[in-house]
Amino acid sequence: MDGTGLGLVLHEKALGKVFQVWCLHIPVYDRTPFEELVEYVEETVKMRHASSPNKPIYLVGDSFGGCLALAVAARNPKIDLVLILANPATSFGRTPLQPLLPLLESLPDEFHVTVPYLLSFIMGDPMKMAMVNIDSMLPPRQIIQHLSDNLTAFLVHLSGVADIIPKETLLWKLKLLRSASSYSNSRLHAVNAEVLMLASGKDNMLPSANEAQRLASSLRNCKVRYFKDNGHAILLEDGINLLSIIKGTSKYRHSKRHDYVMDFLPPSMSEFKKAVQDFRWYINFTGSVMLSTMENGKIVRGLAGVPCEGPVLLVGYHMLMGLEVIPLVEEYLRQKKILLRGIAHPTLFTQLIESETNESSIFDMLRLYGATPVTASNFFKLLATKSHVLLYPGGAREALHRKGEEYKVIWPDQPEFIRMAARFGATIVPFGVVGEDDIAQLVLDYDDLKKIPILSDQIRRDNELAARMGVTVRRDMTGEVANQTLYLPGILPKVPGRFYYLFGKPIHTKGRQDLLKDREKARELYLHIKYEVQNSVNYLLKKREEDPYRSVIDRTTYRAFSATFDDVPTFDY
């Protein structure tokens, strides 16, 4: 509403690395009507589209800007637009501040200086704004000092806002908001653009949470991310990274369609630090031990036995619910400075896994870290770009195994990945992992759930919906691996034990033309890799009994007196 583009300040640097960033500026004393502002933005959009007709144009609309973005999209349905709407003012007609608006209009000029201070508490959380750029890992005393300095500076800036937005300008802006809301709402049916809406739960200016639901049902292609603890000025608050949100919701693309391989942007250092901070408790609780096998067959602590030169294909056992993925990806990136691209079930990339609240979830984080839907095309592209790829042949059937199937390798009969790996000369590294039974107990598996009518019906409906959406994997296969019914098992947490990973001796396929021509040779190698994975699992199950620090209690005691979690010893190998 201020027209300065202030919401861009915290995001310009990150966005500027992947986008050419333009910002609309409306001078303080400008009185351009809303429709003319729409035409002004539209002119720029058409100019950029003419110069790059095959590239999408992103319009980030913050509050009033959300109405502008929607209006431009409605008038230009044939231009490829992606709208990012942060608490759009389309709900201005239902603002809880309506009773106060006449008071603002009649407020004497000498009292207008108080308006910025009132608006600051309506627009957002001053504490969240003041926490921006303060490292949460600092000692408490330093955090308090930085917070105090930022709050003091914040109040000083507020005293100048009355000069930036004088009373006449404020009244004009309110009039502009009314016309903007009315104009954009009347044209929602004409919007063809891809839309991502960011809605705040503590928006004291607009009913943004309810508006998100309305827009999601009114627009053709709208995804919502809900931030329950943020205020109206969400782009100015701590903990919000606009580029991370765009990447985590798979909205970043170069052309008409999002390509999970070619459009992928690796996580930045700040994104990596945030992920480590968010999941540090889990990584500490599981206390992962990573072992790898050198070319001479020697087992070593760490990942030195895994080659650095790609393409590399890690093929292994999938624990219950994929519990092993987060520590593995984090440690791989930390030790080898290489991002592991996971091949994942297509359901993770559909609306089926969106929570009812539409809050950011672990699935956004997985997409941010390069998870890719399992398709032959994506597998081809990953190997062609010499990526390090994480593949679980057992898929959902192995990760959602039944009681008594813990650590049983459940793979298809066909050697699915061998010929593709050989085509690109990929190095295959089989690995085993154990530890699921040390942190959780499976109490309700699929066989149990289908005996409960309500839950059985829900599972059936969910899987039928997935099939209608085209989310099917291995439908032409037979046997156990073809039984990939998706469901949420019932599990109970335990006092954490420890995760153990063993990466086997690398298997080189470069120059192995026989694997491409001879299906029997490919099958022999496939069965050998499957045997190596099961053998690694069995080895770890036996050796973990010798680990004096298998329990989190023992590791915590050791850490208190000796070292960090990363240095906690394990069994002899």
From TrEMBL:
SUPFAM superfamilies: alpha/beta-Hydrolases. Residues 33-237 form the Serine aminopeptidase S33 domain. InterPro entries: AB_hydrolase_fold, DAGAT, Hydrolase_4. The keyword Membrane does not apply. The keyword rRNA processing does not apply. Signal peptide: none annotated. GO terms for biological process: triglyceride biosynthetic process. Keywords: Acyltransferase, Transferase. Belongs to the diacylglycerol acyltransferase family. This is Acyltransferase-like protein At1g54570, chloroplastic isoform X2. The gene is LOC104226277.
